[in-house]
Amino acid sequence: MAFRDVLNIEVAAGNGGDGSMSFHRAKYMEKGGPDGGHGGKGGDIILRAIEGVESLERLVGRRKFKAENGAYGEGRLRQGSDGLDVYIEVPVGTTAFDEDSGKVIADLVKVGQEKVIARGGPGGRGNSTFTSSTRQAPRFAELGVPGQKRRVRLELRLIADVGLVGYPNAGKSSLLAATSRANPMIADYPFTTLSPILGVVTRDNQDERFTMADIPGIIEGASEGKGLGLEFLRHISRTRLLVYVLDVTRDPVGELRALQAELTAYDPTLLENVALVALNKVELVEADLATMVEDELATLGLPVLKVSAKEGLGLDELRETIFQMMPDRELWAQRNALEIEPNIVVEAPLTVVFREDPPARGVGIVTTGQNERVWEVHGGGFEERIVRFSRYLEDASEYLGGVFKRQGLYNALKRAGAREGDTVEIGPHRFEYFDEEEGRS
């Protein structure tokens, strides 16, 4: 199976079911009361983190996910059933971004963790809800709300405690195999590792362990998308400790500086991670030369350990040093927690705009007569409210008028300068403004 760590999908939560406009019918009862039930809620789209999956490849071929709509309400106060939720199972370490806003909407770092990424619309209320002392037979009901739709980018960032970072053929795969229980493909040529590989390293008592990831070889320009580097640099961001694997036979100091420059270009905070240097392949050079290189690397401020993955030299010391330097998991998680966009719908503040002349271009109020005064209302939830009664607008006008008055719309129009007979436009609907005080005088 090919490794895939980025995938774009489209999700659509279920629409809420419409409320029922119904009246009780029974033998010997000519005019029964309203008994319309509520519509069901639309299903959600939910991401769920599972273990045992190391790639997003299993989702390829299905890029669109649609949850079930809520059922319509029925007579005799029968409520429509809720739509079924849709679960999208992804590997632990998956982060979801809203494609349009770029904001993080989910970050799944534990097995079983779930996050709603598209919320189903609530169902509409049946006409039985709208009875009052003056409205005993409401001939309207509320429509369901459409479910949330989103274009989502899924990014897999491996959950590993330690990340091995280095240029191709530096010996990362060999080091991982020698220190852990991983069995990566190893060969003596660059770009062997095409996918991140995880291994588990344990202490002698087996009670303490950490996971180590072999990040594919970085080349210069990786942060700009060259080679394989950019595809996998994101995996480094999850690690609590970085191990720079350097080949002693090349230019270790120059390579370390270049690697740090690439990490900085991709994400400057990566250099804040705890890190050390594994100076590899020391069996290929004289001991004095290896020590000289070790001293030169130490001037850059990181601990340096001489190792040989091939001969097994220095590996016990490397493992123990990593255990001692490993940051506390909870403190690290708090420091690196992503800010997740909440699933909260915030109503826009009410704004009332007067349009005397039609706009030159674009969307707006187009007046139909020279003397017509049109007031355009935005925000405050009024447009959404009217849409939910659009099918029964004439019958629901009295109810909506009372709602708008209680929510301050009439006062806002009056303060803005609206006069008796002016036209008020809310969404696609138009109404005549009526001033109650003028009507009473």
Give a brief rundown of this model.
It is found in: Cytoplasm. This protein is α/β, with parallel strands linked by helices and about 450 residues long.
What does this structure look like?
- The chain is of the alpha/beta class and 441 residues long.
- Helices cover 21% and strands 22% of the residues.
- The chain has helices at residues 172-179, 229-236, 252-266, 287-298, 315-325, 329-335, 382-387, 393-406, 409-416, 436-440; strands spanning 6-12, 45-50, 64-66, 86-91, 94-98, 104-108, 114-118, 149-156, 162-165, 197-202, 209-214, 241-247, 274-280, 304-306, 351-355, 374-378, 423-426, 429-432.
- The strands form four sheets. The protein has a six-stranded mixed sheet, sandwiched between helices. Strands 3-1-8-5-6 form a five-stranded mixed sheet, with no helix packed on it.
- Helix 3 links the parallel strand 12 (241-247) and strand 13 (274-280).
- It is elongated.
What brief labels describe this structure?
441 residues, Spo0b-associated Gtp-binding Protein, Chain: A, Rossmann fold, GMP Synthetase, Chain A, domain 3, 3 domains, 5-stranded mixed β-sheet, 10 helices, GTP-bd_prot_GTP1/OBG_C_sf, nucleotide-binding
In total, the number of domains comes to 3
Number of strands: 18
CATH topology of the largest domain: Rossmann fold
Q: What composes the largest sheet?
A: 6 strands, mixed
Give the helices and strands as they follow along the chain.
EEEEEEEEEHEEHEHEHEHHEEHHHEEH
**Outline type:** elongated
What's the Cα radius of gyration?
A: 32 Å
Flag low-confidence runs. 185-193, 358-369
